[in-house]
Amino acid sequence: MKSKIKVITVVLASVLATSVSAQTSLQQANKVLMEQLKLVHRLSSSEITRLNQIFSRSGVIGQGNPAITRHPMSTEQCAARVPGGPNSYNNTRNARICGDKYMAPLYDPSTQKPSDAQACIDMFEFPNIPCTYPVVWTKASEAATICAAIGKRLCDAHEWEGACAGALQEPDYFFGLGSVATMRNAHNSKYAGTKNWAYGPGFQRGVCAQNSTKSASCGGGGYNRCGSNTYPTGAFPNCKSKLGVYDQHGNAAEHMNLPMAPDQMASRGSKKLGVTEMKGSWFIWDKYQAHPDWCRWRAPYWHGSKVMSKGSHENYHLGFRCCKTIK
User: Fold this and answer.
1) I want to staple 234 with a disulfide (CB 3.0 to 4.6 A). Which of 16, 112, 130, 173 is the partner?
2) What is the pTM of this model?
């Protein structure tokens, strides 16, 4: 057991030592990222090849435009903030259940045990490695393809919400109401009386990665004008749900699948998928709140499209995390 812990510690030390400066080219930064993914998640050469193909087709997917991105915290500073260091985030029980490091089982603690989970969710935004910067500039279609390339999938909205709220509940999409807006309103009305955030029952400042400032040159968007300016994942240890999932408020906004019919649910094995739903920061910061962000709140259909549309939305702070069916 001690030897395994030592190996994991050495791997994470190697990951942190590869911190990328703001002036490094995107291609070089992504090369480092692929090495991190290979080391930490033990990805095969074929999996890395598939990821490289997706990233290279995009030309912008990565941890932000290195020329203008100014991260407010370094990966080394993140490691110093985490009690026990980044390795402490590795839960060996969850790794056995989920089949990968840094994943959390999705279940309802009031009636189930972690081992009853039928799916798991990444503890951190992709690349799901603590004290690394989230991958952004990702379209929903690309997020779904990236997750599939490593044996995972895009999360359904109710899975992300359950991970945040601390209890996975039965899917509740109000199918048949006819539109995203009517389904959304019915869902939000149902949960309005039980609002909660990952860290507790009321919105709090300073708990999550919500103090970033966008680039001065960033108006309506654009890769050459907007630095991603994200924090390393897991840099705020108290920004954690009861299921052990981090950074669901602040940092990168996150794509997920909002099914419009039962046969569009990724959690039930569908490859068809529905429309885009975005969670996470999505313009919610300590100093500016554009809309609610309690765990089960579903947003208006901003920049909406089918998940697999080639024109699905991308921007400087929009990323994702993956889920994985285990039973």
Assistant:
1) 130
2) 0.92
